[in-house]
Design brief:
Blueprint lengths: L11 E5 L2 E5 L23 E5 L3 E5 L19
Antiparallel strand pairs: 1-4, 2-3
Keywords: 2Fe-2S, Iron, Iron-sulfur, Metal-binding
InterPro entries: CISD (IPR052950), FeS-contain_CDGSH-typ (IPR018967), MitoNEET_CISD (IPR042216)
Organism: Phormidium tenue NIES-30
Length: 78
Amino acid sequence: MAEPVIADTKPVVMELEAGDYYWCTCGQSTNQPFCNGAHKGTDFTPMKFTLEEKKQVALCACKHTQNAPFCDGSHTKL
C-alpha cells in the first residue's frame, strides 16, 4: 500500500461539535486534518468518525497514528 504524505509533525488540536467528520488519510488535503477529495486516484479513502458530544480532540496530521483519527504520538518517531 502507498505511504501517506506527512501533512504535519504535530497533531491538530481543536474543539469540534457533535457530528460526523471525514479525516484525511492520504495527507494531501489542503483542508487538514479533514478530507477535501485530494485522495482521488490514489489507494486512500477518508475515514469517517463521529463525535457524540462537543469535545476537544487532537487529530493526527502525520498520518502514522495507530489510533486513527486521533494522535497517539507517532509523529515523535518519524
